[in-house]
Amino acid sequence: MPTGKVKWFDAEKGFGFLSQEDGADVYVRADALPEGVTTLKAGTRVEFGIAQGRRGDQALQVRLLDAPASVQRNQAVAMRKPVDEMATLVESLIVLLDGVGEDYRHGRRPARDSARQTAKVLRALAEQLEL
């Protein structure tokens, strides 16, 4: 499939142009965009199929190769856990870490199951904190 960048796109008019890496510009209509995408930002890298239209090449099934930062940020915000779930996650982590700390204070490593569970909760919390 050809790749290129968005040259320009007018969401109100529902069309724009993509510049191919190896070739002429390609016309793109809004109905060729991925589901949930209503506009394209100039400079965004895309992959697309090409069909011959009445006035030249036309893009089909556009796929975003690098989503603009605003799209990535919006997707991340949508994945955030509610505040009450985060409070529960932090409280669970505190209990687990207290147990791990107690093991170390007594000169032993935590049990494998306990260590895995603690690591799992730590990763989940870290992921949520980064959003």
How would you describe this protein?
- This protein is an alpha+beta fold.
- It has two domains: 3-67, Nucleic acid-binding proteins (OB fold (Dihydrolipoamide Acetyltransferase, E2P), Beta Barrel), CATH 2.40.50.140; 80-130.
- The chain is built from three helices and five strands.
- It has helices at residues 69-78, 83-105, 112-130; strands at residues 3-10, 15-20, 25-29, 45-53, 56-64.
- Strands 3-2-1-4-5 form a five-stranded antiparallel β-sheet, with no helix packed on it.
- Helix 2 packs antiparallel against helix 3.
- It starts with a strand and ends with a helix.
- The model has no long low-confidence stretch (mean pLDDT 86).
Q: What is the CATH architecture term of the largest domain?
A: Beta Barrel
Q: How many E-type strands?
A: 5
What's the rounded overall pLDDT mean? 86
- Strand order, sheet with most strands: 3-2-1-4-5
The DSSP helix count reads: 3
The CATH class of the largest domain: Mainly Beta
Using only CA atoms, what is the Rg?
Answer: 24 Å
Through-space gap between termini: 33 Å
CATH topology of the largest domain: OB fold (Dihydrolipoamide Acetyltransferase, E2P)
Low-confidence stretches: none
Q: How many domain regions? A: 2
Report the helical percentage.
25-40%
Structural class: alpha+beta
Main β-sheet description:
5 strands, antiparallel
Question: In percent terms, what proportion of residues is strand?
Answer: 25-35%
Order of helices and strands: EEEEEHHH
By CATH's scheme, which homologous superfamily of the largest domain applies?
Nucleic acid-binding proteins
Anisotropy-based shape = elongated
